[in-house]
Amino acid sequence: MKNKLQQYFPMIRTEGEVLKELRENKQLWETFCGWEEKYQKEYLDICTGVKGVKLLYDTYFKAIMNPDTRPERLNDFLSEIIGKKIKILKVLPNESAKIAAESSLLIMDIVVQFEDGSIANVEVQKVGYLFSGQRSACYSSDLLLRQYKRVRLELGKSFTYKEIKKVYTIVLFEKSNAAFTKFSKEQYIHRFEQKSDTGVEMDLLQEYTFICLDIFNNTIHNEGRKIESRLEEWLVFLSQDDPDMIINLLNCNLEFKKIYEEVYTICLNMERMMSMFSKELEILDRNTVKLMVDEMIEEYTKMTEEHAKKMEALDEVGRQMEVKQEKLKADEEKLKADEEKLKADGEKLKADGEKLKADEEKLKADEEKLKADEEKLKADGEKLKADEAKLKARKEKLEIDAAKQKERAETAEAEVEYLRKQLAELQKSNK
Questions:
Q1: Which backbone phi and psi does 88 adopt, to 5 degrees?
Q2: Which letter, b or e, does each residue of 321-356 get, where b requires 16 or more Cβ atoms within 10 Å of its Cβ?
Q3: 146 and 89 share a domain?
Q4: Which pTM was predicted?
Q5: Structure confidence at residue 109 (pLDDT)
Q6: What's the whole-number mean pLDDT along residues 3-7?
Q7: Which residues constitute the domain of residue 238?
Q8: What residues are paired with 211 via a beta bridge?
């Protein structure tokens, strides 16, 4: 029995047919056997129509949406995102390789220039939290500066700033960051531009569009939810590998059937298909290592911050101990002064003995009171001594805890350094 997609695309082969061709080609079979079992299954699922192709991934996207060979497709897609009809004039070389290399888990990156001179950078990022608003601003500024340098060089003395056109930064996230997921569980597209708080209109050139594919995919799978726009048709086509969703798209717009036929025609070319899939696995392996390092660095940063907070707390405890020690010192000095006063009083009482003989009974009562006060002072002295011992023991415990925290931080730092060396070796071996 044919699977669902085979009913629409008869050229899709069975798993047995695909495996037979692989076995008949020694090189292809060795490549296939070298993959992990999960990737073997994924490859077979794609070739046999059990799952669709992830067309936003670099090699597949460029095969189907290449602006050099299929400009009308990318024109249509970008027109829907930007909100106006555009036409690609040419693909620009990615001269910002240094900046792009800083981005972990980059799935696809393409820079195009439209007929009106404006530029668009389209990126697909696997993990959203690694692509912040600040990074987006840097990318946009880089594109704007590249345009300025190019146009100024081309026009020479006739150059004016009116020649500089808009720069669009378009980012699609497979997994959105918290800023988007906390904002809404249904809103999947967010547009940004610079506006005045007074209403004054100025063209500040930079615009941003962020599309959250995870939010979109969750929304589009809701029961009874239909594909509502041309943009949603493109997003389903590019991001969905669910056969049911692909069929829904075909029922909604048969124009995509021709494009899917190209996809499954590519699947018939086993050598090309395996080359494309292998490249995606290489990118996946490289990006996985990048993600591990980024997460380790992030974890280390958090540990460092926590350690700093604990050290600050220790410093505060130390300051409190110093205050208490100063108080104890003052209390000791007061006790010493009281003792000296009592001694002086005793001498005075002795000198005035004859004079106070008549008040002997009163003096006796006063002596008893003084004795009681002395006992109380002695008891207070013992309590203060005990408090000082408790504070000393607490300080020693805090110092031991601080040493343990420092040891843990050093261990984490060593682990991060080891992973960095592993990454370097891996990158070196990939070269």
A1: -75, 130
A2: beeeeeeeeeeeeeeeeeeeeeeeeeeeeeeeeeee
A3: yes
A4: 0.64
A5: 79
A6: 83
A7: 52-268
A8: 172, 189
